[in-house]
Task: structure prediction
Amino acid sequence: MFSIATVCSSRSSRMVGAASALAWVMLTGLAINVVAVAVAGPPANVTGSTVGWMVVTAAGNLGGLLLSYLALSQGKVGLVAPITSTEGAIAAVLAVMTGEALGTTSAVLLAVIVCGVALAAAAPEELPVEGERKGLAVALACAARCASA
Result:
């Protein structure tokens, strides 16, 4: 599903622009959630603190998606997608930086992720895309993952 969504996001970001693509994604998500809340009812026990964290999370998600779409409009999916797929790994690194213990399996998996991203970025290009801006695409993709983590 991530692959399909990324390819569709890349195409739509190039066709209508990153902000317009994001607006359509958000409107679709809103419509689905309005129906879900209408059927199931609003969640119980929502406090002011919970709403505050939801707003912070939504802002990070929105910013991260916009940066991802901007990255996809500037570079190839094969370059941007491996970076944007590391959200969980970045969250794990942040958890370790704040004092969480990292198990051996998790450390090995993080190393595999780093190697995979490096291999994808270093892969030779057989068909360069006219107007591609690799450096900007990589920078935007990295910023996107940091914003969403």
About this structure: The radius of gyration is 18 Å. DSSP finds seven helices and no strands in the chain. The chain has one domain: 2-148.
